[in-house]
Amino acid sequence: MKIAVCQINSVIGDIEGNFKKIKNFYEKALQFRVDLCVFPELSLLGYNPQDLLEKKEFRRKCFDYNEKLAQISREVPLLFGSIMEENDEIGIHLYNCAFVARDGKIEYAYKKVLLPYYDVFDEVRYFKSGKENSLYEFNYKKIGISICEDIWNDKDYFKMRRYHADPIEEQIKNGAELLINISASPYYYGKRPERMELLRLISKKSGAPLVYCSLVGANVDLIFDGGSMCIDKFGEIVKACKFYDEDFIIFDTDETSNQEIIIERTFEEEIYEAICFGVKQYAKQTGFSKAVLGLSGGIDSAVVCCIAANVFGKENVMPVLLPSMYSSKGSVDDAIKLCENLGLKFNIIQITDSYYEIIKSLKPIFKNLPEDTTEENIQSRIRGLILMAISNKFNAMLLSCGNKSELAVGYATLYGDMCGALEPIGDVYKTDVYRLANYINRKEEIIPKEILVKAPSAELKPGQKDQDTLPDYEILDKILKLYIEKNLDYKDIVEIIGDSELAKKILSMIDAYEFKRKQAPPVLKVSPKAFGTGRRFSMISQWRKNSFT
Amino acid sequence: MKIAVCQINSVIGDIEGNFKKIKNFYEKALQFRVDLCVFPELSLLGYNPQDLLEKKEFRRKCFDYNEKLAQISREVPLLFGSIMEENDEIGIHLYNCAFVARDGKIEYAYKKVLLPYYDVFDEVRYFKSGKENSLYEFNYKKIGISICEDIWNDKDYFKMRRYHADPIEEQIKNGAELLINISASPYYYGKRPERMELLRLISKKSGAPLVYCSLVGANVDLIFDGGSMCIDKFGEIVKACKFYDEDFIIFDTDETSNQEIIIERTFEEEIYEAICFGVKQYAKQTGFSKAVLGLSGGIDSAVVCCIAANVFGKENVMPVLLPSMYSSKGSVDDAIKLCENLGLKFNIIQITDSYYEIIKSLKPIFKNLPEDTTEENIQSRIRGLILMAISNKFNAMLLSCGNKSELAVGYATLYGDMCGALEPIGDVYKTDVYRLANYINRKEEIIPKEILVKAPSAELKPGQKDQDTLPDYEILDKILKLYIEKNLDYKDIVEIIGDSELAKKILSMIDAYEFKRKQAPPVLKVSPKAFGTGRRFSMISQWRKNSFT
């Protein structure tokens, strides 16, 4: 059986556009005389349509286009992802479905059984769980069709499972000879080998070939990296789609693997690609062809600048140096050198005069009160203001250069360096930003080594260093990972790092700065737990008031 | 049977504090020799603890304090809200519970059955639904205990129900002689009469008295207005708790009503109180005792200023006038008059010099490009910057003065007038802001009538009026309500307002400015559908690209 795996980039809400894309790929598949043509989860709608699903006009349009897809279908089954409504005595229920269209009709529908509701997922908000699903029979073959999460509950793979039901186990028990899972699975580092091992295990133990067809694209903070896979009945990967691009492959289910397919890359390579792709998709879908960013001479903005040059092309990046009276000459020189290495035109705008003008206007209120972080924030906010002005004037996307460590402990100025449409490295710890920088420099020195070796500083007052108020980033990032990603208890963290006062301080900071993150730009998720929709804490929680006992 | 209804203000995460509060109220109840003492939903944790529930140390502390509450319990049953864990073959499940502690032990536990997952609710993210619940038998009486949403699925009240199960119907069928519902029910205008009618209907048709014990307080955007009720078996309200304050009442279940209890107020009165309460709670829990805001001379900032004076006291409000070269003399005079009427000290900071200094610094980049919204945004952002500086220096909470109509159509500057810890009237349409102003002026002119009669203007360029680019607020707000709250289709809206081009323009604007709302301050929810966590749309959705056909 020859299966066309169509890894497409569906755009949220663009039903016509997605329909055309599916139609084009399907017609191509027909030319290749395949037996079956497969598209990803919710391929007609894009993932995740969120509250659009609550709009009657949106749902109606989806149903209309389900019908249009049925109409274009010929003898080759067209398997796509969309939605279906059903009524019962209490009202209308929506299902996340895999449809098979053939010979002008929808001849089969599978309703997603396992609906994720953790981290960034809210599927229970929209969908009802499918309870009874049959196998799809075609060409004398029984095919087990499932959707994303449905395959992520294998009792041999997971020590702790989330759900009681296992639709795949059920399909295998009912005699499925081929498994097809259509997906929209958000990327994070470490998910690729996980995904591969799980899928290989399932095909191996069931003795059924497995087709995993996933969406590629990005929805603001979520990156769908592609990498669809076809696995033979021995659990070996026969073919895989590209990462970060639409792709079309044909898999003969009788084929077996004769080569090793490597889907894993180094951490640096993987997240660099993921971030570039995420920025590119965001810019494309919001119509930005230019980017602007502030270059401080530090490592974070240097890395973001390289990402921007990669994504937008050097003629479309506007780096701006915004020195104040506290900026070292080194910082300015380093930033200039970076621009030269990248071949970027840059601008320098001194913020000193504006700063003193603002300070002067505040004098009647501030009188002789001593300087504090207020004045530091003013500098950061003048920079934000100027960058936004350039963004507005030239319709350039402002990239915020903060990293995850800063966001975690509130080492950032709201409406200052936190201004931006997107925070590309907002899910990358400071220590990992250095790894990214070294990756960028792997062939030649693009980021000047001065930037790599100097002590991090916000340069908002004379002689300031990050480590005046924060511990070394190595230890800070260690604590952050344990608390944010591993979700460990305070006690366990103290046991690991051996410093209860430091743990107390850092954990308190993380919790205290929830209000800044609430108004932060979206960050591209590249870790299992990113700040944003997948992490939900109240800004006024009093939990840390006395929870260190 | 005498029941003490304890309407308390539990603080999220403050387990010790909430424990002490429950203990104090319980001891008071003991002195009154009641038979049963009732507390709201999740009274030990606060509502909503969100991802704190994913922390082992947090859950463990809850369990410890469940035990401590058991230990302080005497012969009078203590009914409180907390959580419980259960293990099965796939792992740990958490339940939202009503516990009865008595004589040193937990003697009964009810697990919430209906878990809301729409609008602002995400309970399915955290809790499993209780399936089998028995009645609580005490003093030869069968008591049906339930939690919030459990009572909101009555088939005689709702034409369209959300759930198949109806735990209350089940309890009545099983012979419940008394119904107790413990709640944490977020306020919006119109919910009070709904709630009252529903509860009255249920007690009337079951012939069982009903105690409705709800939380009072606010969690950032969500306001819990209190108003616990005791209803006799004929469906009449016997007693009710205060709104917006902790309260303690004793209800004798044999009592019947002999007076009419009015819980409804005018729209203006209700939402004015709700907003003041929301601001006050936010300030209290974040430690702000002062407020700062920018006074433009317009209606929005005037109303917010009155709210601030009410909440913080006149000596703790810092209104700042920030005129530019485009500010009319009238605006400044009107703002000053407002301050005088309220007895507030104010400051005036001219932003003109700062504006020209910023413009000068941008000249090398902007060259001779024509002025556009960039320059308007710069003015707004200088104001935001100065207000944030004052907020930082004096530790005063910055109130953002935007209304719902502006937020909807993006008529606001990100990092400019959108700066703030909270947007008190961000869920109030412009036309309703006028109603609030008239309510504030009901006894005497506090908001100068000049402010009430002049045409709304952002005053960011000469002679600018809101209605240069927006339709009249009457018609704008009508469209907004139909689209945002009623969730009507484009076609239906056109049918009602009779102007397809206008509908197209406004709907496109609402969808296009999702990115601004993503970084907006939290708004206090006073309508059934507020911007914020209860409304989830992707910033990059392409739905409106071609969905007007």
Describe the protein's architecture and organization.
Chain A is of the alpha/beta class and 549 residues long. Chain A folds into two domains: 254 residues, Carbon-nitrogen hydrolase (Nitrilase/N-carbamoyl-D-aminoacid amidohydrolase), CATH 3.60.110.10; 204 residues, HUPs (Rossmann fold, 3-Layer(aba) Sandwich), CATH 3.40.50. Chain A has 17 helices and 18 strands. Chain A has a six-stranded mixed beta sheet with strand order 5-4-3-2-1-14, with helices on both faces. A six-stranded mixed beta sheet of chain A has the order 6-7-8-9-12-13, with helices on one face. In chain A, helix 1 runs parallel beside helix 2 and helix 6 packs across helix 12. Chain A is elongated, with a radius of gyration of 26 Å. Chains A and B meet through helix 1, helix 2, helix 6, helix 9 and helix 10 of A and helix 1, helix 2, helix 6, helix 9 and helix 10 of B.
